């Protein structure tokens, strides 16, 4: 039985011998299966949770726990549920929070920062998968209009599955340990006054060693491009409040290039007379291994300033492989965050940890493979109350698109039962007659172990694609749009 993760005398899950590759880190002890029970004595730092979702606590004394095969795990796995009634052990507060998954439950507004917590209460409040397991481990039944993953399928839709051999879950690291090669300060007290100048210096420096660039608190109104040829860069602010260090501009898809600043050079469209979606991006990162921490990426274009049916105004484009974003804020309205790949058929992995993304129309979109872990996804109701959150254009050859896990879906305003979780973006398809089954993009997204606000449509939260193709709800393959939920909670969870 999957129980709530709590401290003190409450029940908790102790990881057994299964999933050793992703179990507790060095220095932590796992409960060892002895027949049908787990038994330990002494003082142990133990992993509490499930594979990839851990907090840590110290247990003292002798204790036993009964075997509980975790749904979807191999039949010989041993997950043990600590029962204080049958044990003499006591548990302390969680000593740390797993970098891979458990992060603070936040109540951020569009202007607030997102800061991780390390208290034991985090484990209880942020792991939304703290409900009893059933066939679908969900508080709502699986229907054709609101499909839920089975526990077996959920085991194939985890952080590790989406990110493959790359494991970024430890995060960017402690900024106090970084040695900045370049420092950005608008007042001239750093090596460069603009973020782009420091990025360009890192590119000129070359090499394969990681280059750290510190950005002092302030507002940097500029368009920034991290080209594919850049070495691995960590761009960060030493100020933990991400709202204090802002990179912002206001280009948009319909904005004429004649209005001034050129399109983002990472994604030019020389023949176009307007910026276009990619060219509207405030900050584009095309290089492999790019990292960002404690920063805000914003596009403050005011929609309908320029007439068009497409008011795209991208704040951040993540395109290079193995990119990590921790405690960042992505602010916009339509198409705020583009998770992309270098070309159709290629794969790029992006991991967002303890971050905040806001918008009102398809505001997380693209063909990248992106994980949002412990994040707040906030819907803005100012323009419309019936928009769409996700718009993946996952390649038909890619089984994994967008994963939102251990997160909260919130709103600014009072929309009720009106906002869609997502729809597939049929990128470059044009019309349904141009769609070729199995080769055109097929959006894939899973939202699991998360808390959904009341703004989410309850009975049918997933929509048809941008060329009106329906999504698949059972026995799906990569040649169909695939949208699922698992183990979610909150007033937007249906029922």
Automatic annotation (TrEMBL):
Pathway: Glycan metabolism; pectin degradation; 2-dehydro-3-deoxy-D-gluconate from pectin: step 1/5
Signal peptide boundaries: 1-20
Active site: 362
Superkingdom of this protein's organism: Bacteria
Pfam families per record: Pectinesterase
Domain Pectinesterase catalytic: 183-427
Stretch list, region Disordered: 132-151
EC number: 3.1.1.11
Catalytic activity: [(1->4)-alpha-D-galacturonosyl methyl ester](n) + n H2O = [(1->4)-alpha-D-galacturonosyl](n) + n methanol + n H(+)
Listed PROSITE patterns: PECTINESTERASE_2
InterPro entries in the cross-refs: Pectin_lyas_fold (IPR012334), Pectin_lyase_fold/virulence (IPR011050), Pectinesterase_Asp_AS (IPR033131), Pectinesterase_cat (IPR000070)
UniProt keyword annotations, A-Z: Aspartyl esterase, Hydrolase, Signal
Family as reported in the entry's similarity comment: Belongs to the pectinesterase family.
The protein, known as: Pectinesterase
Provenance organism: Uliginosibacterium silvisoli
């Amino acid at each position: 039985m999957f129980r709530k993760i709590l401290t003190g005398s409450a029940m908790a899950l102790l990881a057994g011998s299964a999933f050793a590759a992703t179990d507790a880190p060095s220095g932590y002890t796992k409960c060892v299966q002895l027949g049908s029970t787990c038994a330990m004595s002494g003082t142990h730092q133990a992993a509490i949770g499930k594979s990839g979702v851990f907090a840590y606590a110290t247990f003292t004394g002798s204790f036993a726990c009964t075997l509980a095969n975790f749904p979807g795990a191999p039949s010989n796995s041993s997950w043990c549920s600590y029962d204080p009634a049958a044990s003499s052990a006591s548990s302390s507060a969680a000593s740390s929070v797993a970098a891979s998954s458990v992060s603070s439950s936040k109540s951020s507004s569009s202007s607030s920062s997102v800061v991780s917590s390390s208290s034991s209460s985090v484990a209880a409040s942020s792991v939304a998968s703290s409900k009893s397991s059933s066939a679908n481990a969900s508080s709502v039944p699986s229907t054709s209009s609101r499909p839920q993953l089975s526990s077996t399928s959920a085991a194939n839709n985890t952080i590790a599955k989406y990110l493959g051999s790359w494991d970024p879950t430890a995060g960017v690291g402690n900024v106090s340990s970084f040695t900045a090669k370049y420092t950005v300060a608008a007042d001239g007290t750093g090596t460069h006054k603009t973020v782009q100048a420091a990025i360009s210096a890192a590119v000129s420096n070359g090499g394969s060693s990681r280059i750290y660039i510190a950005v002092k608190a302030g507002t940097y109104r500029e368009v920034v491009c991290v080209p594919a040829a850049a070495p691995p860069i960590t761009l960060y602010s030493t100020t933990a409040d991400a709202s204090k260090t802002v990179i912002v501009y206001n280009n948009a898809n319909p904005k004429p290039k004649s209005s001034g600043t050129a399109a983002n050079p990472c994604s030019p469209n020389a023949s176009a007379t307007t910026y276009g979606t990619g060219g509207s991006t405030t900050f584009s990162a095309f290089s492999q291994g790019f990292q960002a921490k404690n920063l805000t990426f914003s596009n403050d274009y005011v929609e309908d300033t320029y007439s068009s049916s497409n008011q795209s105004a991208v704040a951040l484009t993540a395109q290079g492989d193995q990119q990590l974003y921790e405690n960042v804020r992505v602010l916009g309205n339509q198409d705020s965050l583009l998770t992309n790949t270098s070309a159709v058929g290629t794969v790029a992995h992006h991991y967002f940890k303890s971050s905040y993304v806001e918008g009102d129309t398809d505001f997380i979109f693209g063909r990248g493979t992106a994980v949002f872990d412990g994040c707040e996804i906030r819907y803005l109701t100012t323009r419309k109350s019936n928009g769409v959150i996700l718009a993946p254009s996952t390649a038909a050859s890619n089984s994994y698109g967008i994963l939102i896990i251990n997160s909260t879906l919130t709103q600014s305003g009072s929309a009720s039962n009106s906002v869609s979780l997502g729809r597939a973006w049929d990128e470059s398809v044009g019309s349904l007659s141009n769609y070729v089954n199995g080769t055109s993009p097929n959006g894939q997204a899973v939202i699991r172990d998360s808390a959904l606000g009341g703004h989410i449509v309850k009975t049918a939260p997933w929509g048809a694609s941008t060329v009106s193709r329906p999504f698949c709800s059972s026995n799906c393959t990569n040649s169909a749009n695939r949208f699922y939920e698992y183990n979610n909670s909150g007033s937007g969870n249906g029922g």
